[in-house]
Write a structure and sequence with these properties.
With 440 residues, the chain is an alpha+beta fold. It has 2 domains: 7-186, no CATH class; 188-227 and 272-434, Nucleotidyltransferase, domain 5, CATH 3.30.420. It has helices spanning 22-48, 56-69, 78-96, 235-252, 263-297, 311-316, 326-329, 332-354, 401-414, and strands spanning 7-19, 114-117, 126-127, 132-137, 141-146, 162-171, 174-186, 195-199, 207-208, 300-305, 358-363, 387-389, 398-400. It is globular and about 80 Å long. 25% of the residues are buried. Bound molecules: zinc ion.
Length: 440
């Protein structure tokens, strides 16, 4: 007799590329600009209003008024404007809970263009072909998108399985739609698979304690200054990137200070962004495939608990205005690849949970210096980045340095050093007395 397993609500996103004609692109661009302006108006209003007078009603009224008075603001559907308000207040909440910086104005060039579609029923998603689906975008119309996974639509949709909303997001490769999906799934059986320690290696992208190393076949180290993601480009693409960067530098040399960049320069920047976006997508694709395979295979996955400093973000700068001495500031390439490592851990966290497994974290110090055979830290044991040879006279174990670290990680877990998992993001709570006035 089988026992009934509990059902669990699951929320996740699915991103698909939209097939738009130029007129539709212009329409959605206009909506995104209107959404950004709405945000800036709200922020202006918020900072100008005395603390005691800030309220949801007031902000809401301001949006309505602005939409009446400024023609092009009403290009944005009313519900999307409401979503901007909701996101704006959420941004303050995140700030007060110390999860994020204070919200600020959104600049035209630096901010990601996006439009929210908060109501799932507006979307009218339908599959029309093996590879294509149709979706309704408010004020734009029916639009085709690539159908790459089965969505809960039509007879598959119900109260528990449905699309609850979506967001349009533009990147260098064009407009995408990110669906918000809610499903009810049976809780998985506890995963009976083996335990494994994983280390984000210098020479092996993911070193596993049982030697089932995961490699993507791309060069692990690049000359200083080259961004880590560039290794995902093929040689001819890398050559093209170099050419484009030289061209951009050349064109930039003609630009006087405070002058707008020319269309030609902007065009070159766009091409650079497209190449970079392609590299990022390849990296993410490899991460998804690898983490899914790992979550399927192993019952317990153990990783190092690392803190990825925010300074990376500021050191790197943007395409238009790259940071200087990035490599030195961010502590060489290893810490740059840790950014990718953070994403891998995030994926492993939710994927192991889906397959009934667990992800454990152990404290990081010395995992790369300790010998995984005898357990001693003997000076000079790590011969090079790649090889670990134990200098303890009674031991003499040698092996790949990344593999050694992965073995240590698993060992720490087996000794009971796993950190207690925190649910969600860490929140430093304020006492009630000092909590700022919230919008109600
Ligand atoms: Zn040893």
């Amino acid at each position: 007799m089988t026992t009934e397993r509990a059902q669990e609500k699951r929320q996740f996103g699915h991103r698909a590329r939209l097939a738009l004609n130029p007129a539709q692109v212009r329409l959605i661009d206009a909506q995104a600009h209107a959404a950004r302006t709405t945000w800036n108006l709200l922020h202006d209003l918020w900072t100008m209003t005395p603390k005691c007078q800030r309220s949801l009603t007031r902000m809401d009224a301001a949006i309505r008024q602005a939409r009446k008075e400024i023609d092009w603001l009403s290009l944005l559907p009313a519900q999307a404007a409401q979503a901007v308000l909701k996101t704006y207040l959420k941004a303050w909440k995140n700030c007060w809970d110390q999860r994020a910086e204070e919200p600020n104005f959104k600049a035209r060039i630096r901010s990601v263009m996006s439009v929210d579609i908060p109501q799932g029923r507006d979307l009218q998603v339908k599959r029309v072909h093996r590879r294509w689906g149709m979706v309704n975008i408010p004020k734009v119309g029916r639009v085709r998108f690539r159908w790459t996974r089965d969505l809960p639509v039509g007879k598959h949709a119900g109260k528990d399985n449905r699309i609850t909303g979506a967001r349009l997001v533009k990147d260098a490769l064009g407009w995408h739609i990110a669906f918000r999906i809610q499903t009810l799934e049976t809780m998985p059986e506890p995963h009976q698979g083996p335990e494994v320690g994983i280390d984000a290696g210098v020479n092996i992208p993911l070193a596993l304690s049982d030697e089932n190393h995961q490699d993507h076949g791309r060069s692990p180290r690049l000359p200083d200054g080259a961004a880590d993601r560039d290794k995902w480009l093929n040689p001819d693409e890398k050559a093209k990137l170099l050419r484009l960067e030289q061209r951009a530098a050349h064109r930039k040399s003609f630009r006087r200070p405070k002058e707008r960049s020319s269309n030609r320069l902007q065009n070159t920047y766009d091409q650079i962004k497209q190449l970079r976006a392609r590299a990022t997508r390849r990296a993410a694709d490899w991460q998804h495939q690898t983490t899914t395979a790992l979550a399927r295979t192993y019952g317990t996955v153990v990783v190092e608990a690392l803190n990825i400093p925010n300074m990376l973000k500021s050191a790197k700068g943007t395409v238009e205005n790259p940071g200087k001495n990035v490599a030195q500031k961010s502590g060489l390439n290893r810490s740059i690849s840790q950014e990718a490592w953070g994403r891998t851990v995030t994926m492993l966290t939710y994927k192991t949970a889906r397959f009934g497994g667990t992800l454990a974290k152990v404290p990081a110090p010395n995992t790369s210096r300790r010998c995984s055979a005898c357990g001693f830290i003997t000076p000079g044991s790590r011969e090079s980045q790649a090889v670990f040879v134990c200098k303890n006279p009674d031991c003499g174990w040698s092996g790949n340095a990344d593999w050694n670290a992965a073995r240590n990680i698993l060992h720490l877990y087996r000794m009971g050093h796993a950190l207690i998992p925190a649910a969600g993001r860490a929140v430093a709570r304020r006492t009630h007395g000092v909590k700022p006035a919230t919008a109600r």
